[in-house]
Design a protein that fits this description.
The structure is a homodimer. The first copy, chain A, is α/β, with parallel strands linked by helices and about 375 residues long. Chain A folds into 3 domains: about 170 residues, NAD(P)-binding Rossmann-like Domain (Rossmann fold), CATH 3.40.50.720; about 80 residues, 6-phosphogluconate dehydrogenase C-terminal like domain (6-phosphogluconate dehydrogenase C-terminal fold), CATH 1.10.3660.10; about 70 residues, VC0802-like, CATH 3.30.2130.10. Chain A contains 13 helices and 13 strands. In chain A, the strands form 3 sheets. Chain A has a 6-stranded parallel β-sheet with strand order 3-2-1-4-5-6, sandwiched between helices. In chain A, strands 11-12-10-13 form a 4-stranded antiparallel β-sheet, covered by helices on one side. A 3-stranded mixed β-sheet of chain A has the order 7-8-9, with helices on one face. The longest helix of chain A is centred in the middle third of the chain and has 27 residues. Chain A is globular, with a radius of gyration of 23 Å.
């Protein structure tokens, strides 16, 4: 069942939406997730999807991701005060060129591409004044609007890369948008972003691809390819065309990252003859890895979630599920998020926003702390 | 609570154990898991642990992993008809040399080291006749006997690497052992094993370490190190000394794997200027990755688990938890293993083997399909 627009009248205490008309140009996984975030957090009064694919548009509308759909840019765009370019990277620049003539000069324009310097230069060339290049660092092995969900962007790092031409007011509006969507904005210049993602994203992809190619050349290897190898090659399982576009677009920064990577590999290979030094390298690697920030997100869509804090009293899981079962609320999914000596938390996946509201009420009545996400 | 030895008398229909006295030399994660597997599957009448660390021995005995403990080799070893060398790799050869004088010539001897050619040669030199080198491809980020569990080895690929000196009867006994522990034996020569694990295990570790070192040299990177980077560097989070020993021991094969890896990386880098060829490479990489066999195992200890098949009727999760809650069974952990249109499966983590038995009875009575693991 698609998410429903909130049916209750907006209570008078709520602030006005950040935006009146938001346009999502490209209704795929990320564009759709932005739309769902805008909707569930009441950030836009009206959400319009525009896409070259009529099928994608119809699916987005059927799923309740957007309010209206448009097959092509036009005068209607002047009503937009937020435009999110969320098409695949290879068509971002032509898409921006198509939209530019119709954009309201006051509209905040942003994109979600994974390489930033080229698109930043392109939008400047097109004269789009309030453009703030952006890169939400979120994704899923499963693409398309059907897998879009507001939660995909929650807690994600969302890089904003203003140039020297970006008005500070636009940057501040973009930052508010990102924060209201539940993501964590990080601001840096486009070139710095591209260098960093070359190392943390594009180089790992290429290394992962090189590893899978070793297996492709000797099928005996797949027999022994256990957990560690699967972990290392997971990124090679993403959409080949999107991955290819990403690394080609950022090839200059990627070549530098490759050079640094080879230097590290060579050093480690030399240390195979110097076990003490290699042990120090292994210890330093573990320290670094263990200190990486954790952003825990499931790859499964989570439309109608309820997070319940559970205490250390016996059988709290049973108490929660019994209370909901007795009330006829259907639990579709359940996950223990954390278990500690003094309690923990679990996530319940429910069917509808109404179920989330009902379940939250029941559990609060039974003394549980609950955070809902319809 | 430690796993309890089966308290009910063995029913007369059960076959005699495969082994009378099994000796686990090195009671850590893997040795302990072998011991628990031998115990839970009734494969040995008596399990003796020997270890240089008295603390490890005491912990193993307190946890019920072994029946008896010994601080040093001696005449008592002659009673063993199975000896599993499960010490860290760097001490395997000296350990074997200490044990060799006391071994019964009929005893099956095997090891669990991750590099095979050297230890195979060493045991031949020591004159241990019934030695079958082995490598269970299983592990956990958490070491030590406290994390040992029989399930760690279930469904794991367990490579056996007989040499030209290995008696076929010994190989066949080793294979039976592996199969009875629930693992999947794969037989190949030691050198072939070492070449293959250099590529699927030791090279990925080194690549992962090189990636973490890039982050260690520029802390801005950790800000953007999202899911993909975490996946690729997970293996760098293992025990540094064990990882170091493993790659140093296998450095010759690893150097060859590194050479092949660099060739693939160079080719991919060149293809950054040939996007069509790079797309083909990305597609081939995805095909290969997606066809890797899946061995799904959690890294968390699962001592007292129950897997329940659930149908597509409404609120089956609630029905399961209500039935157990009503009977006072405390569910400590719950995980949905699979959800499909036509149903799914979930895992319940319980406190004691008795809880598993009780819960299985209740759920079977309520019409659920249940697989228990106490």
């Amino acid at each position: 069942m698609p998410p429903q627009p909130p049916s209750a009248p907006t209570p008078p205490s709520l602030p006005a939406p950040l935006f009146d008309t938001a346009v999502i140009a490209g209704v795929g996984l990320i564009g759709g997730s932005v739309a769902l975030g805008l909707r569930s957090r009441l950030l836009a009064r009206r959400i319009v999807g525009v896409d070259a694919s009529l099928d994608a548009l119809r699916e987005a509308q059927a799923l309740g991701v957007v309010d209206e759909i448009r097959a092509a840019p036009g005068e209607w765009l002047r009503e937009a005060d937020l435009v999110v370019l969320a098409a695949p990277m290879r068509v971002l620049a032509p898409l921006a060129a198509d939209l530019a003539p119709y954009l309201n000069p006051q509209a905040l324009v942003t994109d979600v591409g994974s390489v930033k310097a080229t698109i930043a230069a392109e939008l400047h060339r097109l004269g789009v004044r309030n453009f703030v290049p952006g890169h939400p660092m979120a994704g899923s092995e499963r693409g398309g609007v059907a897998h879009a969900r507001a939660a995909l962007l929650e807690n994600a790092v969302w890089v904003l890369t203003p140039t020297e031409h970006t008005p500070l007011t636009a940057l501040s509006r973009a930052r508010a948008l990102v924060e209201h969507l539940g993501a964590a904005p990080v601001v840096m210049p486009p070139g710095a972003h591209d260098d960093l993602v070359a190392t943390v994203s594009h180089l790992p992809y290429l290394a992962s691809l090189a590893l899978t190619h070793l297996v492709a050349r000797d099928e005996r290897l797949s027999l022994l390819a256990a957990g560690g190898f699967r972990d290392l090659t997971r990124v090679a399982s993403g959409d080949p065309r999107m991955s290819r576009d990403m690394v080609v677009e950022n090839r200059e920064a990627l070549r530098l990252a490759l050079r640094r990577f080879r230097t590290q590999l060579d050093r480690l290979e030399a240390e195979l003859d110097d076990p003490e030094e290699l042990l120090a390298a292994a210890q330093e690697g573990k320290r670094t890895r263990d200190s990486l920030p954790v952003v825990k997100r499931s790859l499964l869509p989570r439309r109608h979630d309820l997070v319940v804090t559970i205490s250390d009293r016996p059988n709290q899981i049973g108490a929660v599920t019994q209370a909901l079962g007795a009330a006829g609320v259907n639990i579709k999914d359940i996950e223990v998020l954390a278990i500690r000596e003094d309690g923990g938390a679990m996530r319940l996946g429910l069917e509808t926003p109404e179920d989330v509201q009902e379940a939250a009420g029941i559990l609060r009545g039974a003394g549980f702390d609950v955070v809902g996400r319809a």
